Amino acid sequence: KAFGEALWSRRESAAALPSDTGLYPHVYLLHPSPDPDLAKSLFRTEVLSRLLKGEITEDYLTPVTGATRRQKDGTRAFELGPDEAKTLFDAILAWQPRKVDFDMGEVRQQNRYTERAIGAALADAVLPFLDMTTIGVARIDRLFRLIEDGGVPSALEALPQVIRLDSSRLNQVIQVIHRGLLNAQSDAVFSAFGAIRRWRDLSLAGVVEACPADLTRVVVAIVTTRREPGLLHALHLAADLVTAGDFTETDQEQLADALDALRIETAYENWDVRDSRTATMTLVRARCVRLADKLKAAGIVDDAVAAWIDNAENDPVPEVRYA
Description:
With 323 residues, this protein is mainly alpha-helical. The protein contains 16 helices and no strands.
């Protein structure tokens, strides 16, 4: 309560959210405030209304995503009405990167931030408040075109919500996520893995059917082939899928074999620091330790699994040692 009161003491006027705090606007909805209804009203005025008018920027997309994302207790700090969600959907899909005659990098960076924020906004702040009658087939088709054109790869993250809206799109969604997992562009790969995570969350909530083996097998394939740029994400997700029991025994044995190869390939004494993967190499090793731990807990007995766990204790890099 004291923290909330301190936040709300920093206001330029009675008609404004707190300022000069360095916080995104949705934070004011997630913490106690003197008047929760006023906080929602001001958020709608200062953030949502600007998005609905077509001011699609990361500065507004991130707050509306944070405010509408379902919390651990199942509640949302802020909700859109169906008409608001439909209008925001149209505004987001109409967004185009800003173009200027001369750019020192700032505009390009802002465009990139906005592109990356669009997927989560669609997945958390827009589609959950729509049904098929409200959104219509034509809008769903536009979403697929946006993804397939490659301009906004983060929109992949919204696809599990499409299954909730229209289960007949299942195969189409699987195919598009599959292509994203194997994409050569890191943003598309990241978003495809994000789509699988969102799919699993919706499945656990009983909203959609389980994520199909067609996709989880791709995760195994990326690990076993050490395919970039998806390896780091695949190792992380694979550990979660092992814990959830979503892999067959054969899948787990293939992962153990991949860990054996990765143990040699990422050994510090063998690594060429000129390799473009150097920036993520220790993260990959940390993910390997975590996966090995999960495989051991699942009952997999393998020399490579044991070696990753045993050697981690003396690894010179903290993030690996404490993985």
